[in-house]
């Protein structure tokens, strides 16, 4: 194989769509997820099950996982893509949040993407590769009980800019994508008891729909397929224009 992608959160709705799309384009894909996806039989797909919280804070564990990833790569290849998609979403009111909530949110959502990029930096530079960080609309527009998640995603976007300043001169493109509602199984389960609210969520978006995991995956891949190095350090919206709408009395 001459093309490789490392995708975190590979067993989820968005991660699974990313895995499928890159496999279809003859990439060898290394998926990282603490839960097994059940896709281990797919040709050119290898799944590792690290704990990204431990990866972020434990140096020896981190080196172990990075060495596992590197052992799956040949000496020479054409393309390399790192997609930091895994996320910890802890929803709690301000007076219920504790240090462990902050530690877990920042470790998985911000610190692990940094150390994955750092640990694979030599490979990214050699291949003039791409790093895509999956952020969230919550980095800028959020709601109650999302303090940990929103702050960690805002930090991820800040990290994207900082990494781009240092890595872009070496040929590595670093960008983040901020989706709004995406129709994953997790999102749909949240509306099981009140399906009318899901329809209301669709109507809140000026697009009158919510995004599909396959659509987000196609958007991500369109960026990593680009040969242009001018798109770097950006946070790109994928939100059905909901972030353009002002909600106030009319």
Overview in brief:
This protein is α/β, with parallel strands linked by helices and 250 residues long.
Could you explain how this protein is built, in words?
The protein is α/β, with parallel strands linked by helices and 250 residues long. It is 43% helix and 15% strand. It is built from nine helices and seven strands; from the N terminus they run E-H-E-E-H-H-E-H-H-E-H-E-H-H-H-E. The protein has helices spanning 13-24, 52-57, 59-71, 99-119, 121-127, 147-167, 185-189, 195-204, 213-225, and strands at 3-8, 28-32, 45-48, 79-84, 130-134, 173-179, 235-238. It has a seven-stranded parallel sheet, sandwiched between helices. It is globular, with a radius of gyration of 18 Å. The N and C termini lie far apart (57 Å). The mean pLDDT is 94.
Which characteristics define this entry?
Rossmann fold; 9 helices; 250 residues; 7-stranded parallel β-sheet; 43% helix
- Largest beta-sheet details: 7 strands, parallel
Q: Estimate the mean pLDDT confidence.
A: 94
Briefly, what CATH class?
Answer: Alpha Beta
Unreliably modeled segments: none
The helix count comes to 9
Report the CATH superfamily. NAD(P)-binding Rossmann-like Domain
The CATH architecture is 3-Layer(aba) Sandwich
**CATH-derived topology:** Rossmann fold
Sum up the overall morphology in one term.
Answer: globular
Strand order of the largest sheet: 3-2-1-4-5-6-7
Our measurement of the CA-to-CA distance between the termini, rounded to an integer number of angstroms, reads 57 Å
Order of helices and strands: EHEEHHEHHEHEHHHE
Radius of gyration: 18 Å
The structural class is alpha/beta
Beta fraction of the residues?
5-15%
Total number of strands? 7
Domain unit count: 1
Helix content: 40-55%
């Amino acid at each position: 194989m001459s093309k490789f992608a490392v995708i975190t959160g590979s067993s989820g709705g968005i991660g699974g769509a990313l895995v499928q799309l890159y496999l279809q384009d003859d990439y060898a894909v290394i998926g990282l997820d603490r839960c097994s996806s059940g896709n281990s039989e797919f040709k050119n797909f290898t799944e590792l099950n690290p704990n990204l919280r431990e990866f972020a804070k434990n140096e020896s564990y981190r080196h172990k996982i990075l060495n596992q990833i590197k052992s799956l790569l040949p000496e020479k290849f054409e393309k390399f893509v790192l997609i930091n998609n895994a996320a910890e979403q802890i929803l709690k009111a301000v007076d219920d949040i504790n240090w462990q909530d902050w530690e877990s949110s920042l470790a998985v959502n911000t610190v692990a993407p940094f150390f994955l990029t750092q640990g694979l930096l030599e490979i990214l530079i050699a291949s003039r590769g791409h790093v895509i960080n999956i952020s969230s609309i919550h980095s800028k527009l959020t709601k109650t009980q999302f303090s940990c998640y929103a702050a960690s995603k805002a930090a991820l976007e800040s990290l994207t800019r900082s990494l781009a300043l240092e890595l872009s001169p070496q040929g590595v493109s670093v960008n983040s994508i901020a989706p709004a509602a995406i129709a994953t199984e997790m999102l749909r389960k949240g509306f099981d008891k009140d399906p009318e609210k899901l329809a209301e969520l669709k109507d809140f978006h000026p697009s009158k729909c919510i995004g599909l995991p396959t659509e987000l995956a196609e958007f991500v891949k369109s960026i990593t397929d680009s040969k242009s190095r001018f798109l770097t350090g950006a946070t790109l919206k994928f939100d059905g224009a909901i972030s353009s709408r002002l909600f106030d009395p009319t």
